C-alpha cells in the first residue's frame, strides 16, 4: 500500500514537471527562469494565486454584511415592493410528488394526481403553479444580488482604469508583449488580479444559492473560464493583456446590474435609459474592442515576434470561449431591446425564471367563492373591481 502511494506521488510529480515544461508555455528559448525575481524586479508566481481564496471568503462575508446593512435599506428607499403570493394549500400527496418526482407534471400525471387527491385537474394545475412560485426568489433577494454586483463591478472598473490608464499598453496594443516574458509585476497589477480572481471564486462558491437563471450553465462556464484565464495569464506573465481583458469586461456589467436594480424598484424609465446605455457599451466593449483590439493583439501580433507554442493556443482558446459567450449574451440583449423598442415600459432579464400567474380561464369554484366573499355580490354577471384594479394571484 505504501509502495503504491509512493508510485502515485511519483507519477503526479512527473506529470507536473512535464506539464510545466518551458516549451509548452513560452516561446522557444524562454522559460520559467526568466520569471525569477532579480535586481529589484518582481515577477508573478503561481503560488501567489492562493491569496485569492481568503479574498474570496472575505467577499462572501462582506457580501452578507452589505446586503443586510446597505442593500436592504436601499431597497426600501427605492420602493422595492413584493407581490403578494397566494400560497399553495396544504396537500401532503401533491407536496410529496412535487419534492420527489416533478415540479412540472405532464397532463397524464395531472389526471392521475387529480384522481388520487379528489381535486379537479384545474385545481392540481393551480396548486403546482402556486407551489413553484413559492420557491422562486423574491424581488428583495434579486435586488440585493444586483446591488452587490453593481457595487463591485463599478469599483473594479474604476480601480482597473486607474491601474492601466497611465500605462503605454493602454494606448498601444503592441506594448502588451514588449519584453515578454520579462515584464516586471507592478503592485497595482497584483491587487487588481487578486481581487478580481477572488471575486469570481466567490461567485462560483455562491452560484448554488444565488437566483438561478436560464443561462445557469453558461454562467458556470463563464466563471470557470474566467478563473482559468486569470490564473493562466498570471502564471505565464500575460498580465498586461489580462488587465485589459478584465477592464473591458467590467466596463458594462455595472450598467446591467444598475438597470436591474431600478427594474426591481419599478423605476421603468430609468431602467430603460440605463439599459440602452448598457446595450451600447456591451456591444462596443465585448463585440468590438475585445475581438478586434485585445484578441487581435493576442492572436496576430505575437506571430510577428515568436513561433507558435502551446500556451499561445491555450490562452487564445479561452478567449474564444469568452467571445462565444459574449455573442450568446448579446443575443439575449437584442431580444430585450426588441421588446423595449415598440414602447414596452419594462425591460425584463431574459435569463430570469418568470413568475407564473393564475389564468382566469383556469379558475375553480373555490376561488370564485373567495372572490365573491372579498368583493361582494356579482353585478351584471361581472365581479366588481376594487379601485379599478384586479387582484392577480
What is the distance, rounded to the nearest whole angstrom, between the alpha carbons of the first and last residues?
A: 64 Å
| Helix and strand element order | HHHHHHHHHHHHH
Assign the structural class, choosing from mainly alpha, mainly beta, alpha/beta, alpha+beta, or little secondary structure: mainly alpha
What does the radius of gyration come to?
A: 27 Å
The percentage helix is 55-70%
Total count of domains: 2
Instruction: Count every helix, treating DSSP H or I runs of 4 or more residues as helices.
Output: 13
- What is the averaged pLDDT score? 79
Keywords: DNA-binding, Endoplasmic reticulum, Homeobox, Lipid biosynthesis, Lipid metabolism, Membrane, Nucleus, Transferase, Transmembrane, Transmembrane helix
Protein name: Ceramide synthase 2a isoform X1
Catalytic activity: sphinganine + octadecanoyl-CoA = N-(octadecanoyl)-sphinganine + CoA + H(+)
Pathway: Sphingolipid metabolism; Lipid metabolism; sphingolipid metabolism
Describe the structure.
- This protein is mainly alpha-helical.
- The chain has 2 domains: 244 residues, no CATH class; 54 residues, Orthogonal Bundle (Arc Repressor Mutant, subunit A), CATH 1.10.10.60.
- The protein is built from 13 helices and no strands.
- Helix 5 crosses helix 6 and helix 10 runs antiparallel to helix 11.
- The termini are far apart.
- The C terminus is likely disordered.
Q: Could you give the topology of this structure?
A:
Layout (H helix, E strand, L loop, with lengths): L1 H18 L2 H4 L26 H27 L13 H9 L6 H11 L3 H15 L3 H26 L22 H20 L9 H20 L3 H27 L2 H32 L10 H31 L24 H11 L18
Helix pairs in contact: 3-7, 3-8, 5-6, 7-8, 7-10, 8-9, 8-10, 9-12, 10-11, 11-12
Keywords: DNA-binding, Endoplasmic reticulum, Homeobox, Lipid biosynthesis, Lipid metabolism, Membrane, Nucleus, Transferase, Transmembrane, Transmembrane helix
GO molecular function: DNA binding; sphingosine N-acyltransferase activity
GO biological process, one term: ceramide biosynthetic process
